């Protein structure tokens, strides 16, 4: 793509900017040419050239050099538009390098200046980065809001396509799903219209993901298969991986273990070493389920361990992003309070001068104002502490039920197991999975499904002792660790919960029939490593499901030792409570 003949410097720079991704080789040549001629450039042209030089360093992966160059541009350029582009590019590479705190700080500064910037392209660049980065920190409302601003700025073209995609993606993530499919289709159309097929396919990925979640597997599969050939051509490995893992899930839902395994393995192969992403964790979970169904417990155990590692790494990254966002937000607030404090001090000094001759009154006023300053600082500190505590709580709790989320459950359980291991006192792990929960959602609606989850949590809580660790470890799956508990006690406790769950709900709650299956493993047979207990309890749970659901099943080793140990009252307990 050549530059138009007789182009002036501004036109050449604009041309370079336009081709920088689509024809990077030509861009690099043009850049070298422009650098030679730069002595005659205007100030704005020189800054534009410096920005393009920094951009090229990013493109070739030289982040350290790019960061220095971008930092200088941001600090020194008098041109707002160029400062915004440099800021947005810097935010992008900081986020990519997992330097989230620096990324949010930089983004905050750019957003602060944005109202003064009229250049639409520069605004689009900052708003686009903001939407993506904030979605990563779980700030979906803000992400949607920034995407909306892009859509409002552009009635057509590439930015409108990207704005609409970002909006539909943020809505998908925040669960605003009323008419969502329609909006996602509009985003796809807007992108197809301007040949931005990559963004159209990214939007289709969310559509397929929702279809899988809603068990419209055939829709998902046909959409994914249609887009797959173009997706693998983009040289954008992240999108290919997202498609691979969705295909694996869809095939698994259709009981096609062969293809599910193929796509899950492809996802694993494509993962960067040490990078833990959601697709990777999902792929390992599927591989674990596939091996488990094949009865290959050794293989299942190996994949389960990898799944736990990837899932933990992924959640750590999510938490790191969210914590960095909160940290920067609080720092910004702190700065505002500091400014407030300075303003108040100035007011006091001014008043002091004005009232200098009335000394007594002045000192009274002075004290009153000082008290006001102190009170406002105290109030701010209180709010800061409260918001920190709230945030710590949110990071550990499941949003729907308020109990520990998976990650925190794992942390607390590992700690409790370390403690009981020291004293060699036993512990048992119970996994609970609601039966046919998809049918409950499909029959009574998602809200009734959510209420059923909350009701299950209340029932479990009524059977917990202090020291027990309770958490939601998946959609309709819960875990309870019972420290210092024998297998018989765990069986009895699980059975009591099972009966309470299946009991007809009282008139105040919805009449949703509910049962649950239980899998139990104890440290006596599986030791004090959580991952071994999880695999054993999960295997027992799998058998509880396979054998007809609504039952409590203990892991294989516990069963054989129970059967062998004639001194235990296994038959009595089993018959009395219906354990299988
Ligand atoms: N309402 C609601 N549904 C959820 C939530 N999390 C997951 N689910 C749904 O739970 C269902 C779980 O379905 P499956 O894994 O197929 O299992 P199931 O239908 O319970 O069948 P079995 O476990 O084999 O008895 C899916 O349809 C999910 O969409 C949630 O927070 N709220």
From TrEMBL:
The protein's matches in SMART domains, at most eight in alphabetical order, are given as: GGDEF
InterPro entries registered for this protein in UniProt: Diguanylate_Cyclase (IPR050469), GGDEF_dom (IPR000160), Nucleotide_cyclase (IPR029787), Rev_trsase/Diguanyl_cyclase (IPR043128), TPR-like_helical_dom_sf (IPR011990)
Q: Which UniProt keywords apply?
A: Coiled coil, Membrane, Transmembrane, Transmembrane helix
Q: What Pfam families does this protein's entry cite?
A: GGDEF (PF00990)
Q: What class of enzyme is it?
A: transferase
> What Gene3D superfamilies does the record tag this protein with?
3.30.70.270, Tetratricopeptide repeat domain
Q: Which residues form a coiled coil?
A: 325-352
Q: Which reaction does it catalyse?
A: 2 GTP = 3',3'-c-di-GMP + 2 diphosphate
Q: Where are the transmembrane segments?
A: 365-384
Which superkingdom, per the lineage?
A: Bacteria
Please give the name of this protein.
diguanylate cyclase
Q: What is its EC number?
A: 2.7.7.65
UniProt-listed SUPFAM superfamilies: Nucleotide cyclase, TPR-like
Domain GGDEF residue range list: 425-557
């Amino acid at each position: 793509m050549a530059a138009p003949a007789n182009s002036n410097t501004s036109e050449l720079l604009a041309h370079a900017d336009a081709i920088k991704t689509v024809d990077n080789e030509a861009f690099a040549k043009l850049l070298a040419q422009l650098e030679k001629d730069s002595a005659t450039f205007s100030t704005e042209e020189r800054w534009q050239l410096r920005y393009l030089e920094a951009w090229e360093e990013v493109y070739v992966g030289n982040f350290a050099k790019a960061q220095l160059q971008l930092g200088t541009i941001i600090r020194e350029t008098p041109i707002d538009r160029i400062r915004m582009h440099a800021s947005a590019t810097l935010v992008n590479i900081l986020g990519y390098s997992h330097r989230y705190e620096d990324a949010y700080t930089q983004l905050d500064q750019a957003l602060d200046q944005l109202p003064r910037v009229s250049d639409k392209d520069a605004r689009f660049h900052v708003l686009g980065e903001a939407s993506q980065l904030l979605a990563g920190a779980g700030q979906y409302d803000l992400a949607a809001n920034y995407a909306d601003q892009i859509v409002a700025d552009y009635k057509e073209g590439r930015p409108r396509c990207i704005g609409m995609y970002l909006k539909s993606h943020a809505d998908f993530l925040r669960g605003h799903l009323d008419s969502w499919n329609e909006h996602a289709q509009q985003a796809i159309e807007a992108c197809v219209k301007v040949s931005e097929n990559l963004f159209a396919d990214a939007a289709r990925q969310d559509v397929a993901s929702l279809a899988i979640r809603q068990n419209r597997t055939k829709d998902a599969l046909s959409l994914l298969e249609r887009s797959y050939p173009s997706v693998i051509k983009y040289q954008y490995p992240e999108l290919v991986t997202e498609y691979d893992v969705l295909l694996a899930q869809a095939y698994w839902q259709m009981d096609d273990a062969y293809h599910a395994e193929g796509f899950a393995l492809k996802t694993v192969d494509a993962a960067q070493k040490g990078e833990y992403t959601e697709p990777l964790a999902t792929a390992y979970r599927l591989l674990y389920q596939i091996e488990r169904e094949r009865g290959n417990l050794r293989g299942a155990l190996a994949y389960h361990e990898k799944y736990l590692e990837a899932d933990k790494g992924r959640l750590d990254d999510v938490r790191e992003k969210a914590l960095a966002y909160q940290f920067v937000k609080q720092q910004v607030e702190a700065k505002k309070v500091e400014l407030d404090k300075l303003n108040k001090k100035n007011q006091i000094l001014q008043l002091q001068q004005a009232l200098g001759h009335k000394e007594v009154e002045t000192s009274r006023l002075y004290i009153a104002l000082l008290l006001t300053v102190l009170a406002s600082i105290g109030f701010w500190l209180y709010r800061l502490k409260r918001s920190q505590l709230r945030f710590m709580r949110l990071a550990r709790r499941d949003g729907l039920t308020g109990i520990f989320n998976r990650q925190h459950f794992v942390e607390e359980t590992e700690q409790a197991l370390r403690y009981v291991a020291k004293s060699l006192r036993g512990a048992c792990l119970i996994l609970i999975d609601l039966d046919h929960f998809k049918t409950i959602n499909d029959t009574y609606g998602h809200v009734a499904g959510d209420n059923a989850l909350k009701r299950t949590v209340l029932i479990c809580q009524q059977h917990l002792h202090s020291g027990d660790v309770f958490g939601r470890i998946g959609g309709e799956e819960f875990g309870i660790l019972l420290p210092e508990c024998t297998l018989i006690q765990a069986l009895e406790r699980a059975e009591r919960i099972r009966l309470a769950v299946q009991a007809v709900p009282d008139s105040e709650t919805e009449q949703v029939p509910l049962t649950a299956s239980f899998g139990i493993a104890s440290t006596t047979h599986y030791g004090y490593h959580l991952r071994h207990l999880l695999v054993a309890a999960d295997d027992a749970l799998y058998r509880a499901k396979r054998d007809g659901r609504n039952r409590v099943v203990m892991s294989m080793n516990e069963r054989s030792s129970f059967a062998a140990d004639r001194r235990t009252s296994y038959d009595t307990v089993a018959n009395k409570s219906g354990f299988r």
